[in-house]
Amino acid sequence: MVNMSTDPTFLLLLLGLLVIMSNYGHFSSALRMPPIVVDVKKRQADAEINCSECKGPVYSLGLNTYQVPMALHELNRARLVQSMLEKLDSSSSSSSSSSRGVILLEGGKQTTRYDTDHEPVFRQESFFHWTFGVPEADVYGTISLPSGESTLFVPIYGLDYEIFCGSSPSLDNIRSKYGVDNVLPIDQLDDYIASQLDGSVDGINEDDDNGNVNDAQLHLLSGLNTDSGNYCMAAHYDGIEKYSKRRNTDTLFPTIVEARVFKTKPEIELMRYTNWVSSMAHVEVMKCCQVKMMEYQLESLFQHYTYTHGGCRHQSYTCVCACGPSPSILHYGHAGRPNDRQLLDGDIALLDMGAEYHCYASDITCSFPVNGKFSDDQLLIYNAVLSAQIAVITTLKPGISYLDMHRLAERAILKSLKNGGLLLGEVDDMIDADLGAIFMPHGLGHLIGLDAHDVGGYTETITRPRSERPGLKKLRTARTLEAGMVLTIEPGCYFIDVLLDLALANPKQSKHLCVERVNEFRGSGGVRLEDDVVITDDGCENLTVCPRASSEVLDVMNGKPWPPEKDVLPELRRNWVNNDNGKMVRYDL
Amino acid sequence: MVNMSTDPTFLLLLLGLLVIMSNYGHFSSALRMPPIVVDVKKRQADAEINCSECKGPVYSLGLNTYQVPMALHELNRARLVQSMLEKLDSSSSSSSSSSRGVILLEGGKQTTRYDTDHEPVFRQESFFHWTFGVPEADVYGTISLPSGESTLFVPIYGLDYEIFCGSSPSLDNIRSKYGVDNVLPIDQLDDYIASQLDGSVDGINEDDDNGNVNDAQLHLLSGLNTDSGNYCMAAHYDGIEKYSKRRNTDTLFPTIVEARVFKTKPEIELMRYTNWVSSMAHVEVMKCCQVKMMEYQLESLFQHYTYTHGGCRHQSYTCVCACGPSPSILHYGHAGRPNDRQLLDGDIALLDMGAEYHCYASDITCSFPVNGKFSDDQLLIYNAVLSAQIAVITTLKPGISYLDMHRLAERAILKSLKNGGLLLGEVDDMIDADLGAIFMPHGLGHLIGLDAHDVGGYTETITRPRSERPGLKKLRTARTLEAGMVLTIEPGCYFIDVLLDLALANPKQSKHLCVERVNEFRGSGGVRLEDDVVITDDGCENLTVCPRASSEVLDVMNGKPWPPEKDVLPELRRNWVNNDNGKMVRYDL
């Protein structure tokens, strides 16, 4: 049989066909038509049904791990296309032509450690994963505009790869697995891009004889990540340079960032799962924690629990397992401070740990006394933070400013510290003096999604700029809250020597400090409580289901079952759930 | 008090002092003297004593984790300097001047995942770690030639870093912690390099008025990693370009690579520990393994055991947990094949897992029936591989070619397959027909050290080139063995459809195959056994202490204790050890 992929006659036929299609076929059907918004809306509606009924392919790691409908990504793509078309239409003078084009995203590449052949376990790039849900490396993906047609371009490997890494599934199997419209070998990517831009391998066709403008665009992702200060780099492959006139790097990034800020129902259910798994792992760690263990043994247990019971191969971030004075180092756990302290009698443990599943994150912090008993002073700080958590969660709803929530948490903590004899004077004066940032130098929380610090915290168009005030300037978003946003709420209160010393040297702050009482707390670390909440139409739901009341914490540490029989803190809006064969089922206590 | 670090008068004084020292002081003492080989030899002798007596600073992760003497790295540095001086002397026409200079190494940088602020847990670059043993990011290190004086250059962070990542220890504390001669702030690196090259901030001093040649060299690391095909990149910082005339990238790489090939006593003891921890973890996994578990649950358990009992935060490589047919994919476990199969009754599990501690690797494979019972055919393949393992380990000694060991393993396996009725004809003919590579397409093993696939497998000067023959061409080294080398011995026998089909289509190979019998084994995966051995003066020691006899495997799976009461396979040369408060203690069964 003729090998069709290399027979020159076949290739010429194929090229001819592509040229014909690009002039008359579906690739350019929109040239003379308005955008097929109806199609996109239908795609979106279908995806929503597929998600809610869990139709079509799913991702799962077996046993009773969560079954993620791949339609989640179909829905993301439909939402993205809808937003892109709206944006392109509104910015275009001619009615429709600029809506034509193709979105190109480049998946992550398998890396090696320095010069060696050591390959860290691959984790997909988040924009690509949001769009296509493909966990493998070295893949490209496109979405046609306005049709919304999705295509994956996958590497084709040889015999050596098959022996060492396994045979590649057929293109059709990949298509079924990920629920995309097409799958093609990666060496056809350039031809495909050309066809989408009404061109061929010989070049791009510009305006035709009938006066129709051809301005189909190649949309690439490029923009600033406001959490890292790093730039997201546009997709690249050898040969893409020839489309420089059609390259558009202005539209896609802000559009996809904004789409990622608002979580869909299936995304929220998936994050409910990662929160459930991580909450149960926190409970397990609380139960097993004992004086004389090492901090890293808690990290190891958490990772083991979430992987073996939840299928979570990756953590959302490096575990912070900070005991005794360690919690005053906010990002404890990195290579320079590797969770290597021994737990001592009387220590508070602050454990900030969250697993991810199918690249969707959780981010949870629990604090508890490692010996199972709160001292009066420990309880004072614990309840100060808990009061902040309750104050914020009972206030959250659409229209509320996240900046105001940060201030609300500060107020609750300062008020408790005043009641506990650490501070003097009016809380309003303390806020004016930036005293809140002495005890909570970090922001109240952040958007969370595919990344623990998710995109969209600050954007050029719709958010107020970052505040310059201590505390507030660390806030990873200053947005007004809207339904569908998922954020962490993580108030904390720490005793950080260098900050306390600065406060003592600052008359506006020192006048509020009861120095002797404050000094009693030096070296005691601190407390943080962190939940992941989704903003609803009239308030919020708490996805995290950890022990929060001090009585709950002590009960769990004393071996009582979790979840409890009664919810003693309904104001925390914890949604009690169970995993029923890979689905999250809610119930009332 | 005057802030000396910014007072211009002080800076001028310091500069003047540096210029004086560079002309008359210890920086250039070698300009008119032969290399201080005596000093270097004394450094080496001191380091050996410090290692054997565990004097000076140690690295340990607490509890009874291994106590690594930091003198291990002092010894590495002394050996490196000694080799550098020998090489530079022998290549120099003038007797000593070219031996002067400074080695500059750049430690790894903390990276972020794509454009986000997600920071993977930092793991030091291996050449840097071998030399200095510093686990933290963003550090430079130098070694002066010929004196051997070592200096670390560390970043100095500000208040924000201290709050989020912890305060930096003092320079003196860092010096004590790592056992180096000096620690300086990173912003003094360029001045220091200049001084080492007999220059100042104004430039490099060339030959002096007395006719003395100044050709002090800046030695940078640059060369090819033969396992990955990647290049190791020379240390860089802004401003280093001005030393281009003094730059030497020829000498350091081959010298340090060759030094890394030969492990010192303290390195071998450290690798004995990682092997012990990983062996015990393999035993734990064997004990807990049950039908219906998922492959990744074995991975999770192994990681948890090695971290929580051994302080191993990193694995040497991604765990291969391959059950049923999966072992026929040699690098199973990557993101495209993520250990996600369920263990079925009748499966063989092939688990290739090894943890690292203080960046020193272990690399161990066990194979066993998940239901605790070998079928006759499974036992045939298991014993075929075990016979290869025994044949090689009883033959290993200095002077033996590793290529010959690969052939020896192939012969043992082919002979067993012939005895088992899978193959026909003479084993010699099978070898000539490359039939060994059908059943074992990978190499017998590789050098191991800081990297699982350690450097030095092929070098320009002392090793024969890579063979082109199937199987042999995958061998990661073709060296003649010498005492002090640590290598993996990992024979395997797999049933890989695509290779069996190729063999059937090749008359030279197919004539040896009993097709029906071979086909009975299709889909059964395969078996690999992997030990880490150190070549001794008269043979080898096996650092891995896993169950190997099939009876040992079944005993462990049935709950019997490990290590056993009697060593039924003394020919495997397993060294029975226990961890006594962070030291490895050997004992006889």
UniProtKB/TrEMBL annotation, chains A, B:
Keywords: Dipeptidase, Hydrolase, Manganese, Metal-binding, Metalloprotease, Protease, Signal
Manganese recorded as keyword: yes
Signal peptide (UniProt feature, chain positions): 1-25
Record-level GO BP terms: proteolysis
Cofactor(s) required, per the database record: Mn(2+)
InterPro entries: Aminopep_P_N, Creatin/AminoP/Spt16_N, Creatinase/aminopeptidase-like, Pept_M24, X-Pro_dipept-like
Major enzyme class: hydrolase
Domain Aminopeptidase P N-terminal, chain residue ranges per copy: 68-214
Catalytic activity line of the entry: Xaa-L-Pro dipeptide + H2O = an L-alpha-amino acid + L-proline
EC number in record: 3.4.13.9
CDD domains per record: Prolidase
MF terms in GO: manganese ion binding; metalloaminopeptidase activity; proline dipeptidase activity
Family according to the record: Belongs to the peptidase M24B family. Eukaryotic-type prolidase subfamily.
Binding partners and assembly: Homodimer.
The protein's name: Xaa-Pro dipeptidase
Organism ancestry: Eukaryota, Sar, Stramenopiles, Ochrophyta, Bacillariophyta
